[in-house]
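PROTEIN DESIGN WORKSHEET
SECTION A - STRUCTURE
LENGTH: 348
TOKENS:
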């Protein structure tokens, strides 16, 4: 079922009711079964019976718009205690015919203190434009998607006989605002954790908002990283090689190898070409060469011009990345929701 709440995913207004707006797929538009809950407490919605414009991307799907003016302080004061745990996360869940989707909203500690009449620590959520920059349409699920990715990483590593617990120094390369880094810290608080990215704005947010979670740094668009040779046990690079042209890809693979200790691993992702609607000439290139860089894909506001979309075939990864690393695993849709995991080991 298709369900969405519209951005912005941040509560800015202290006094007025918060205006939620969204749409949900329904089987019977005459009797829609769509509900909204804020941290477990129902917020009454108004269904407008005006369908969203879906025909282009979802032909044949029936959906209705809804909105709600929610008195957030009143709802949160009525929330079950387990939904007000610290660090606090404001979550709005839409259900339609039994299927649910939850969206997260940034709030401040000061706003929470006013709502609850006592200090409550907010879970940091990046401002909407930074979420859109790194997650596109998946914005609004910063924490939940970070947990999902961390679960998948733990499962993939365990499956290769390499439990997360054994890695003492971890680099989240292309960490953005630290979606994964924050969760890795919760799971491995003793590890020396590093996060690096080309984007000074996301790194500044991570440094200011995620506090001592990791050593967050800006790196240049090309290598080298500011880390010594053989200094990391595990490098995660989630949805980074999915955006690099081939020359930068090879340059960064070589530098990540330099930074890894011998016998240690890089866990990264690739787009599955079959799962994406590529333009015909890019599709043909992907099928023939195993790699295609879609340089005309939409640019991302705030990131350099080279940042577009790259597609990799399994054979390409085994052959080309296999010249630098031992390829331990090439998966299918097993990491970062729709992407393919690639697990690489630096030879001992
Ligand atoms: C799709 S986002 C994923 C962010 C993060 N890994 C996550 O999963 O939430 C891709 C990230 O890669 C970063 N990036 C792109 N090229 C990079 C490079 N050459 N060095 C470091 N980071 C890079 C971008 O700035 C962006 O934050």
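SECTION B - SEQUENCE
RESIDUE ASSIGNMENT:
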């Amino acid at each position: 079922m298709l369900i969405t709440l519209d951005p912005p995913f941040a509560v800015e207004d202290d006094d007025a009711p918060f205006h939620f707006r969204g749409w949900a797929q329904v089987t019977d538009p005459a009797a829609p079964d769509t509900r909204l809950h804020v941290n477990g407490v129902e917020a009454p919605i108004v269904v407008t019976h005006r369908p969203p414009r879906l025909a282009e991307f979802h032909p044949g799907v029936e959906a209705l718009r809804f909105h709600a003016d929610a008195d957030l302080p009143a709802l949160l004061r009525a929330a079950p205690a387990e939904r007000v745990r610290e660090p606090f996360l404001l979550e709005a869940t839409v259900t339609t015919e039994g299927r649910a989707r939850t969206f997260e909203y940034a709030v401040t500690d000061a706003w929470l203190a006013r709502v609850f009449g006592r200090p409550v620590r907010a879970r940091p959520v990046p401002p909407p434009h930074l979420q859109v920059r790194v997650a596109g349409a998946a914005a609004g699920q910063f924490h939940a998607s970070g947990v999902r990715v961390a679960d998948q990483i733990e499962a993939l590593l365990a499956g290769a006989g390499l439990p997360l617990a054994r890695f003492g120094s971890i680099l989240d390369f292309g960490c953005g605002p630290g979606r994964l880094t924050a969760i890795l810290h919760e799971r491995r608080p003793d590890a020396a954790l590093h996060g690096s990215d080309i984007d000074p704005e996301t790194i500044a947010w991570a440094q200011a908002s995620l506090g001592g979670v990791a050593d967050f740094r800006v790196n240049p668009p090309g290598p080298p990283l500011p880390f010594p040779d053989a200094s990391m046990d595990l490098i995660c690079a989630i949805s980074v090689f999915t955006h690099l042209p081939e020359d930068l890809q090879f340059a960064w693979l070589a530098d990540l190898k330099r930074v890894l200790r011998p016998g240690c691993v890089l866990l990264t992702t690739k787009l599955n070409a079959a799962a994406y609607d590529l333009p015909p000439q890019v599709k043909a290139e992907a099928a023939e060469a195993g790699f295609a860089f879609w340089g005309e894909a939409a640019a991302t506001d705030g990131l350099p011009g080279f940042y577009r979309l790259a597609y990799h075939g399994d054979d390409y990864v085994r052959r080309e990345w296999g010249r630098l690393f031992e390829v331990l695993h090439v998966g299918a849709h097993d990491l970062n929701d729709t992407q393919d995991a690639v697990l690489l080991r630096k030879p001992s």
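SECTION C - NOTES
Residues 134, 174-176, 179-180, 197-199, 202, 219, 221, 238-240, 243, 252, 303, 307 surround S-adenosylmethionine (CB under 6 Å).
The longest strand covers residues 260-272.
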